[in-house]
Amino acid sequence: MAVALGVALTAAMGVGLAASLDSPVRKPVRFAGSPVVVAGRDTLTVPVRRGPEVGHVTKPLAHPQPVDNELLRELGRLGKIDKGVGQKRTDRKASDRTRSGHTASGRTRSDRAAPDAVGVTAPVDAVRAVVAASGTGARVLTGDDRRLVDPATGRDARALVAVNSFLGTAGGVAAFVSAFVTASTFAFVVALRRREFGLLRAAGASRGQVRRWLLGEAVAVGAVASAAGCAGGAWGAPVLAGALVDAGVAPPWFTVASGFSWTWWPYQLAFWTGLAVAVAGAWSAVWRAGRVSPVEALREASLDVGAMPLGRRVVGGLLLAGGLGLLAWTWWSEPAELLKRKTYTTQPMVLATGVAALAPALVRYVVPLFRRPGFLTRRGASGAAGVAVGRGGAVGLGRARLFCPLGRKRGRSWVGLGRVARANVAGSVRRTGAVAAPVLVVVSLAGCLFGSAATVSGAKAAEAGQRTAAQLVVTGDELRPVGGGDVPGATVAASAATAVFVREDSGTALVRSEARAAPDPEAFAAVTRLPVVAGDVRRLDDRSIVVNEEWERHRVGERVDVWLGDGRRARLRIVAVLARGMGDNGAYVTARNAPSAPLDRMDVTLRDGADRTAVAAALRTTTGGQVRTAGQWLAAEYPPGMKHQTRLGLLMLLAICLTYTAISLLSTQLMTAPVRAPELRTLRLVGATPAQIRLVVGAEAALAVTVGAVLGLAVTAIALGGLTAALASLSAPVGVVVPWAVMGVSVGVCGVVAVGGGVLGVRRMPGAAA
């Protein structure tokens, strides 16, 4: 079941990835009637070092360049010029501001009203020749490539990036949990069948024959399950696509074809991955099964407190040490990586796998934490064959008085029940570890995923609140600049989103840094509280820049070569350095270094005695934007907790993990029940009632789930502790969010499944609980 479900999820997500990578080509809309489209340059190409040679790196510009006016005149001589049914939204706004002098720099450009793209009714070869001769780097688009200048193209591309990210993360989590559950389940099956293997060895079977037999079982089960999973994936792919659209993760047009008609590679990948997971999960267990000797199997007792192979100890220790070492190294070398989703998704997997591998050895240290005075004796109890041993050494109705179903001894019978349950959990470490391991995985993943996402979101919101000193914030797509006397009683500082590019790593990489352009640096400094660690933001001018500590060169007074958002190269002097923070502490330039950037925000502070209502009304009239208080703006831009789409995506991942955990817990409990039949019949003979036996089994399952929850909580604490250290290293606000509700629900679901499976298994055994 685990392999089939994993293959189904892998196939469905692979089909979704194939659909997002090969999305249907949309027909051109803006220039549908023009055979050729000429668009301004939208990429920046910079030479970088590639060892002894020089290569080139290309990145998209923050502000694509318009079509040159001289080029427009040359194209007009070739044929009819069409500016289309509408420019790209951001470029249209920039052009509108250019025509009215409302650029970020507050001045009118010489190429006013220059469009971002035009359609030309002329021969393609002639158009290419004119564009090449112009030397402007403009693009010539024909056929379906004409859609690249449609406004919807960019939105679709961003939406598909989100789809790819979610499907990749979900596929990785599903593969990890599937492999983990398969390996742990198969290992437990082998542990339960040691007597069977010993009898086979006594009958003359060699170690190689036992191993080949078990490996053949794994191949057969894996092949059948993978084939069933592929069929389930073909059915589930359209359902998954619809769920992504409903959750707002995918765009409304996103869909996949039903059946196997879409593409074959996701099903091939899913099938062979499932088969490999089944064989790999069985490999270590098969190797241990081959080492079972006849005498070892016949002498084996039910008590398995020492059942922890050396190889498993070594693997678990290496995984745990590797996870801790990777966490420490990332915090030391690149703490910002710990804030990224791919990091706080993958690193807990390594830690959880290491702790799960060592779970049988850790059980003996966790179980004593639940010893309660008055419920368990001070000396405790040891278990063998599921029956507690009293202080006098007698079993059953000796001096311990474990069971007394009738009469005045009823109160003491519950003490005996607790002792038996705790003794069985501590004595059967294989069974306890098999139940605790999937629980710790789902609890740790729930805690790390939800806790890390909420912590990062909360830190960003707190950091934004610390940077904002304004009482009012004006936002909008078509803001008009404000003059000195337009809004009496207020200080208004406008800014625009842009970007700068810089070569780093000794000239081998081109790094894009988000930036903001401020027409009035002094006013901007007055309405913000930037985390300055060196220099002065008020000294920013057209020949300088403000950077943060993440830049390779970040000393005040040092000059850096940068490429501005529109592709122009500039050499600017560093006048201030900001703390790294959560990534929003980008660079700052003057508006003249971002002339195409449209104004999108204004921070406003009120002077003494100013009327907030009157100022807000004047801002609405003058700027045409939305006026909100700073608190309202922060709540909208940085909502408390997580974004709706992020939370839905994490809930889908948690549902996958819980499904796998339920499969593992239920299969473990049902497989264990027949093996425990002699033990439970012995309890029945010494006076336990069927209800008491079911209570003992249920208490054992609940305690094993609690052990897994404690271990999962420990993994969560380590991961969130590393995240806290990273926030402190980045000088970001520190406030850890522990998702107690999500973790509690996960533990509750695991407890219900484990207890229900244990009781169901006992009820199915004749003579044990009847």
Content of β-strand:
5-15%
Total DSSP helices: 21
- Structural shape: elongated
**Distance N to C terminus:** 30 Å
Say how many strands there are.
18
Sheet with the most strands?
A: 10 strands, mixed
Could you please describe the fold and organization of this structure?
With 770 residues, the protein is of the alpha+beta class. The chain contains 21 helices and 18 strands. The protein has helices at 2-21, 69-78, 89-99, 124-134, 151-192, 194-202, 207-246, 265-290, 294-299, 310-333, 341-357, 359-366, 410-427, 429-467, 521-526, 612-623, 630-637, 644-675, 677-685, 690-729, 740-763, and strands at residues 36-39, 43-50, 53-60, 80-82, 117-121, 139-142, 383-384, 387-388, 472-475, 490-504, 509-518, 532-535, 544-548, 559-563, 569-578, 587-590, 599-606, 626-629. Strands 9, 10, 11, 12, 13, 14, 15, 16, 17 and 18 form a 10-stranded mixed beta sheet that branches. The model is unreliable at 89-102, 106-112 and 373-412 (pLDDT under 50).
Provide a concise account of the structure shown.
The chain has helices at residues 2-21, 69-78, 89-99, 124-134, 151-192, 194-202, 207-246, 265-290, 294-299, 310-333, 341-357, 359-366, 410-427, 429-467, 521-526, 612-623, 630-637, 644-675, 677-685, 690-729, 740-763, and strands at residues 36-39, 43-50, 53-60, 80-82, 117-121, 139-142, 383-384, 387-388, 472-475, 490-504, 509-518, 532-535, 544-548, 559-563, 569-578, 587-590, 599-606, 626-629. With 770 residues, the protein is α+β, with helices and mostly antiparallel strands.
